[in-house]
């Protein structure tokens, strides 16, 4: 018995060392490529969605840094509304499709994509163009409209939202990516990466009734954070969000922000948005609350932000 | 041969209707065969369908009852079942001929239904209208089972990584509708099991009307008197009890053109077609004028009914006032139904709209509309809200209760309006931001406005509200509620201001 346990421990330790060294090598690769500090956030402008994603990932050390061979990957774009891509209510389908493609090229065993939508999910997946694009790229669209797809998760660090039902696709995967679209929101003011987390959760009403900003901030304490938050600002909705009423609400701004730090990337997105319509960081209250919970920093000066214009 | 062709067609129709009413997740295309059902076509004045049905009856007899009516072949199934070995220990069931045809009672019953309809109690017609009765049985009894099977298969497939099928909601929406469906199943099943097509020749309003018309039809079952030996074998197979072989008569007011008698006649005397030379085709045991007399009688009933309609119309006018108190419960009828009155008058409760509603917004009404509106579709936002761009219910209604409506028209049709109770709102009660209602509003009927500091509070703009129920569905505190408009009104088109963006921008950080 003792020997068996010892061997087990040895095997585990061996595995740990391998993983660690892998991680270390990745970091070294990333830093050596740019000869300096590792990039904390990539901000890209003036490109098409797929090209901007490629540029951002290049700065952040490549997709291989996040996705390993044989891993199960999940993408969580915003597919909340039964609206076409031009209306800017959902994440850009080309961007999602490119991400699926990159993950598969990096050796992902599968790439699942879902959102717990507000409108009828079949229509959302269809009209957003995401289903078609994802399936063409080799990804799998997964439904999220039934409570049986969810499992209870405790949020010990949370202030008000102590437990939530999280989609099993997220719980079962090896790595997942948060892919929001930048747009206005009546209650949260702006919906970016943090607000997008509501789509991995079953009960939206609880989030609203316990205080929207507090609950959103609490969601960031979820023990399995996204490997990367990729904010789609190719088209941004500047009024009547989050649904929007027509293309009049939408501006073509061609930008993308990506970071592992969810607080930082949302801070950057707010500052970007502020150029078009006045929006202060204080108004988007959940960002500061997440920082207070220790989930990231709003101080972009302290980070190595890489700005790229294509 | 004729019998087999008839059964083949009838079974095909039965299957199409069954699939139509088992719709769970936009799985099947809508075949729109419901548009060729007699009573719904009559109610919606669908001239093409009426010409086809009446024309077919005048040419070929009650082929409608033998082929097009789903409840007809449904009853034939029970009759067939009754003749299986497991159900009959003794000899096979024999019908024979019954002298009494209850034609007078049929017309009086039809008159009662007509009066009930004119008085606004459409549900009484709907209970006996065969297509609607069939629709309720399938949608209430078979559809949930089908949904459960779907969910079982979908769960297994999804665990294997296949997401082509998905889970559907199979929860019970109306106990009352379920009870009605069970009763219909038991009663119609029992009658047809023991007494063949007696339902069709007594209480069915369509059977009465088409039975009257089929007396004058060109092609019909006839007896070749030169061949007939009065053996009565034909009558024993007649589910309508309408062949008097002793007198070589057929009561056409009851014959449903099932053609069972043809194959049972050893003499080859039963045939379907035009009168033969030398053969006598006597039109029914009915005295020649009886039908017409019945018709005149019923016309008198119509006259009386018109008067009652006037009274009814006046009564509904008075109930049109808009009430805006938060707790007022006025039901919502779907866009396209124009008004409660229009829905209540024309809907026979077939539930085609209900099974097709992708959001599970429509459900069978209890007493929301009053007695006359029982089983008719009413909007409820406990499962979802009405899709902004969806007009499926209006496309599926065969009776004109929900008239076809374009998406553009629907966007400005106010079926109800929002009422907000700030005392219940999260923003007021807890001083926390929420905005779930405004988030779900597609038209700006609720917007968030400045409250305290950065807090925003809902503000209603009923002029834009179309009553889709998004706000009511999502509100965690039941602080918003949609009150129905008994008569739908036109909402203002949503405001659209072009957002001007200067080209001069950078990262901003």
Helix share, percent of chain B: 40-55%
Low-confidence stretches of chain A: 16-35
Assembly context of the chains: heterodimer
Proportion of strand residues of chain A? 15-25%
Largest β sheet strand count, sense and barrel closure of chain A: 10 strands, mixed
| Largest sheet descriptor of chain B | 3 strands, mixed
What characteristic shape of chain A results from the CA principal axes? globular
Give start-end ranges of low-pLDDT stretches of chain B. 283-289, 314-324
On the 0 to 100 scale, the average pLDDT of chain B is 88
Query: Approximately how much beta-strand content do the residues of chain B carry?
Result: 5-15%
Number of helices of chain B: 20
- Broad structural category of chain B: mainly alpha
Main sheet strand line-up of chain B: 2-3-5
Overall radius of gyration of chain A: 19 Å
The helix-and-strand class of chain A reads alpha/beta
Write up this protein.
- The complex is a heterodimer of chains A (310) and B (509).
- Chain A has 310 residues and is of the alpha/beta class.
- Chain A is 37% helix and 21% strand.
- Chain A is built from eleven helices and twelve strands.
- Chain A has helices spanning 2-34, 49-59, 93-105, 121-127, 130-137, 168-172, 193-196, 204-209, 212-219, 262-273, 285-292, and strands at residues 41-45, 72-77, 110-113, 140-141, 150-154, 163-167, 175-179, 181-185, 189-191, 228-237, 250-259, 305-309.
- Chain A starts with a helix and ends with a strand.
- The relative contact order of chain A is 0.16.
- The model of chain A is unreliable at 16-35 (pLDDT under 50).
- In chain B, the strands form five sheets. Chain B has a three-stranded mixed beta sheet with strand order 2-3-5, with no helix packed on it. Chain B has a two-stranded antiparallel sheet with strand order 1-4. In chain B, strands 6-7 form a two-stranded antiparallel sheet.
- In chain B, a hairpin with a 5-residue loop joins β9 and β10.
- In chain B, α1 (2-21) packs across α5 (70-82) and α6 runs antiparallel to α7.
- The interface between A and B is large, with 59 and 48 residues.
């Amino acid at each position: 018995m003792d020997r068996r346990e010892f061997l087990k421990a040895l095997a585990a330790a061996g595995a740990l060392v391998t993983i660690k060294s892998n991680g270390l090598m990745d970091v070294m690769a990333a830093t050596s490529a740019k000869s300096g500090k590792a990039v904390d956030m990539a901000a890209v402008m003036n490109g098409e969605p797929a090209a901007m994603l490629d540029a951002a990932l290049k700065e952040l050390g490549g997709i291989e840094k996040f996705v390993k061979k044989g891993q199960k990957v999940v993408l969580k774009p915003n597919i909340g509304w039964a609206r076409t891509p031009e209306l800017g209510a959902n994440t850009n389908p080309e961007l999602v499709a490119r991400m699926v493609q990159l993950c598969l090229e990096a050796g992902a065993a599968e790439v699942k994509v879902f959102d717990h939508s507000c409108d009828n999910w079949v229509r959302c997946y269809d009209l957003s163009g995401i289903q078609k694009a994802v399936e063409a790229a080799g990804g799998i669209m997964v439904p999220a409209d039934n409570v049986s797809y969810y499992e209870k998760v405790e949020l010990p660090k949370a202030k008000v939202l102590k437990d939530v039902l999280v989609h099993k696709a997220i719980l079962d995967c090896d790595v997942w990516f948060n892919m929001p679209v930048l747009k206005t929101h009546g209650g949260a003011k702006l919906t970016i990466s943090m607000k997008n987390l509501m789509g991995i959760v079953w009960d939206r009403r609880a989030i609203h009734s316990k205080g929207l900003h507090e609950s959103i901030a609490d969601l960031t304490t979820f023990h399995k954070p996204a490997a990367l938050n990729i904010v789609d600002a190719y088209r941004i909705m500047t009024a009547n969000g989050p649904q929007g009423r027509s293309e009049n609400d939408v501006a073509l701004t061609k930008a993308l922000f990506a970071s592992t730090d969810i607080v930082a990337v949302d801070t950057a997105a707010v500052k970007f948005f502020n150029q078009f319509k006045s929006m202060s960081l204080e108004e988007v209250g959940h960002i500061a609350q997440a920082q207070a919970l220790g989930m990231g920093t709003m101080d972009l000066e302290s980070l190595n932000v890489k700005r790229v214009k294509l | 041969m004729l019998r087999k062709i008839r059964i083949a067609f009838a079974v095909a129709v039965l299957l199409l209707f069954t699939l139509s009413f088992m719709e769970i997740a936009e799985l099947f295309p809508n075949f729109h065969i419901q548009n060729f059902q007699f009573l719904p076509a009559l109610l919606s004045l669908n001239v093409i369908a009426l010409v086809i049905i009446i024309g077919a009856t005048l040419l070929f007899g009650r082929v409608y009852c033998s082929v097009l009516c789903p409840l007809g072949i449904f009853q034939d199934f029970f009759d067939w079942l009754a003749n299986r070995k497991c159900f009959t220990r003794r000899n096979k069931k024999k019908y024979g001929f019954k002298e009494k045809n209850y034609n007078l009672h049929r017309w009086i019953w039809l008159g009662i239904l007509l009066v009930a309809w004119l008085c606004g109690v459409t549900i009484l017609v709907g209970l006996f209208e065969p297509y609607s009765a069939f629709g309720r049985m399938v949608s209430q009894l078979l559809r949930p089972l089908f949904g459960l099977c779907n969910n079982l298969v979908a769960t297994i497939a999804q665990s294997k990584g296949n997401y082509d099928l998905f889970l559907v909601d199979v929860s019970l929406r109306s106990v009352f509708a379920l009870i009605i469906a069970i009763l219909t199943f038991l009663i119609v099943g029992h009658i047809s099991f023991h007494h063949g097509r007696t339902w069709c020749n007594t209480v069915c309003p369509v059977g009465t009307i088409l039975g009257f018309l089929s007396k004058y039809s060109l092609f019909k079952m006839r007896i070749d008197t030169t061949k007939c030996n009065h053996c009565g074998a034909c009558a024993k197979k007649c589910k309508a009890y309408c062949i008097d072989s002793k007198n070589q008569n057929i009561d056409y007011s009851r014959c449903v053109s099932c053609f069972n008698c043809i194959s049972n006649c050893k003499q080859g005397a039963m045939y379907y077609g035009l009168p033969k030379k030398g053969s006598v085709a006597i039109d029914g045991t009915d005295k020649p004028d009886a039908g017409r007399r019945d018709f005149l009688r019923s016309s008198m009933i119509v006259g009386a009914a018109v008067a009652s309609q006037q009274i009814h119309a006046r009564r509904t006018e008075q109930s049109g006032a808009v009430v805006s108190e938060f707790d007022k419960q006025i039901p919502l009828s779907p866009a396209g139904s124009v008004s409660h009155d229009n829905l209540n008058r024309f809907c026979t409760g077939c539930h085609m709209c209900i099974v097709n509603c992708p959001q599970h917004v429509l459900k069978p009404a209890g007493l929301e509309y009053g007695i006359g509106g029982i089983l008719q579709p009413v909007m409820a936002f406990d499962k979802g809200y009405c899709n902004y761009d969806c007009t499926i219910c209006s496309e599926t209604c065969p009776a004109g209760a929900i008239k076809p409506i374009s998406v553009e028209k629907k966007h400005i049709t106010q079926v109800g309006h929002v009422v907000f109770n700030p005392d219940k709102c999260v923003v007021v009660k807890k001083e926390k931001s929420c905005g779930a209602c405004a988030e779900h509003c597609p038209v700006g009927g609720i917007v968030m406005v400045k409250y305290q500091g950065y807090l925003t509070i809902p503000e209603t703009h009923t002029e834009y509200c179309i009553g889709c129920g998004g706000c009511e569905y999502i509100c965690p505190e039941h602080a918003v509620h949609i009150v129905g408009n008994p008569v739908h009104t036109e909402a203002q088109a949503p405001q659209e201001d072009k957002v001007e963006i200067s080209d001069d921008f950078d990262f901003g950080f």
